[in-house]
Design a protein that fits this description.
- By secondary structure, the chain is of the alpha/beta class.
- It has a single domain, classed as Alpha/Beta hydrolase fold, catalytic domain (Rossmann fold, 3-Layer(aba) Sandwich), CATH 3.40.50.
- About 30% of the residues lie in helices and about 15% in strands.
- Helix 3 packs parallel to helix 5.
């Protein structure tokens, strides 16, 4: 399967949670579901202001390897109505997708991009109906530059409800992101740094050296203590933030696929 081929459309009788239903969404925002294996399943969680499209090349490669893949659309991300949602809503949708996937496979692998990487760390510490085989964090959004974080916290939300973003994603919220939602990401960062325990399963972290959204070195400083002896960090030379969509996507796909197969 290549990244542009359609994913499986499951019948309504499969009782898909709302975050996995295609609905009438544009292709770049539609959730991805492909049932290939009862042995290993992969849950792919997109980043803040993004969508399943950001994960599609990786999802397609994993499906072609014979793995079951599921990539939900998180709350608020499909219709440009991100402002009313918080990280609690995004985590709840990721959890619903995991709860749907886990009973159908013998083992689950979690892959999260940017903010999705933070959700992955939280999911990895929760009970699951299937064992967690591996965790993969792609450009984990462990922190924003201090000046930006301070500025956001002092904005008058009645005058500045949205901020101009970096349109690195296909999502409808990417160009102008709600300040309240960005503040929720900051809160999520603090929660992850305070409660996420050391990983007890093999963990892989990939981060682009040319990431202009999340500092590669700062992310490494913050995430490495959470990885423990099971963790592995690798920089992707020349890559930007949305790793599966960069010019280095083939390298990223190969690293993640190999890691999951060996996990």
């Amino acid at each position: 399967m290549d990244a542009h081929e359609p994913f499986t459309t499951l019948p309504a009788t499969t009782n898909l949670p709302f975050c996995l239903q295609s609905r009438e969404l544009p292709p770049e925002m539609a959730p991805l579901v492909d049932m290939r294996s009862s042995t290993d399943g992969v849950l792919l969680i997109h980043g803040f202001s993004g969508g399943p499209w950001d994960m599609r090349p990786l999802a397609a490669a994993l499906a072609a390897d014979g793995l079951t893949v599921v990539a939900p659309l998180l709350a608020g991300h499909g219709d440009g109505n991100l402002a009313p949602t918080t990280w609690h809503d995004w985590l709840a949708d990721a959890r619903k997708a995991l709860d749907w996937l886990a009973p159908q496979v013998a083992r689950v692998h979690l892959v999260g991009l940017s903010m999705g990487g933070l959700l992955t760390l939280l999911l990895g510490r929760q009970p699951c109906d299937a064992p967690i085989g591996t965790l993969t964090l792609l450009a984990p959004a462990m922190s924003l530059p201090r000046k930006i974080a301070v500025a956001l916290r002092t904005l008058d939300l009645t005058r500045w409800p949205r901020v101009v973003g970096r349109p690195h994603s296909q999502g409808p919220n990417a160009a102008r992101m709600p300040v309240a939602s960005v503040l929720s990401v900051l809160e999520l960062q603090e929660v992850v740094r305070s409660v996420a325990p050391t990983c007890r399963v093999p963990a892989l972290v990939l981060h682009g050296t040319e990431d202009k959204t999340i500092s590669c070195e700062r992310a490494r400083q913050l995430v490495e203590p959470l990885l423990g002896d099971e963790g592995r960090w690798q920089a992707i030379e020349g890559a930007g933030h949305v790793l599966p969509q960069t010019d280095q996507a083939a390298e990223v796909v190969e690293l993640v696929s190999t890691f999951i197969r060996q996990g």
